Amino acid sequence: MTTTRTLVPALDINDVTLELGDGDARIRALDNVSLTVMPGEFVTIVGPSGSGKSSLLAVAGALTKADSGTVHVHGTDLGRIRGNAAARFRLDTIGFVFQSGNLIPALTSADQLRLMGRLAGNPSVDPAPLLDAVGMKHRAKRRPAQLSGGERQRVGIARALVNSPSLLLVDEPTAALDRARSHEVVQLLAEQAHRADVAVVMVTHDHEVLEHCDRVLEMVDGTLSPYTT
Ligand SMILES: Nc1ncnc2c1ncn2[C@@H]1O[C@H](COP(=O)(O)OP(=O)(O)OP(=O)(O)O)[C@@H](O)[C@H]1O
Asked: Boundaries of each ABC transporter domain copy (predicted)?
């Protein structure tokens, strides 16, 4: 007997439109965008400045509501949750990684992870295995100012994984890094996606790192299409 396993997409964006600004200055940041990302898949979005990449991450991360279309994260319709429920959902289901790691200056690497666990109602988080997974166990007691840019980014990735998210949204993770560190960080994201079955959606201007991604898409004027070199 053959058994078929139905996989729920980690992210399912269907025909989404988002308009920003007021009056004559109103622009269509997302124009009928659709995107499905499965668990364990690492998708990257490239495209010119102002093309709508950050808007897409904001909609996928339940930070901005689409004007039309639907967004499901791991089966939950983001259009149907708001306020505290949306904040709770973000904390439990979505991880965010930003340009420079966005770490809290006063906290050690280990405490960055503990705090994220506590916020999600998971106070017994053990930071050691996650820091180990990103090659940062030996920096557990250091604060951000005592870390290199690449190390901060690694801690940021470990922190984003603390609550075992279904979806990891990553905005320009290599902006502050040299070429070697950029490859390391993006390779690490690919490893985490494949090992922990997390869907990763990364936005980048850095075409050097695309080799590590499973799928590359291009955003131009609010529309998404496959990227061709
Ligand atoms: N709050 C806002 N109000 C009005 N327009 C906005 C707002 N935020 C973004 N925009 C406009 O929406 C469009 C898409 O912006 P977005 O930040 O998504 O692009 P991006 O591709 O991420 O750009 P970059 O690569 O420079 O970060 C741009 O034309 C931008 O000027």
From this structure: 11-229
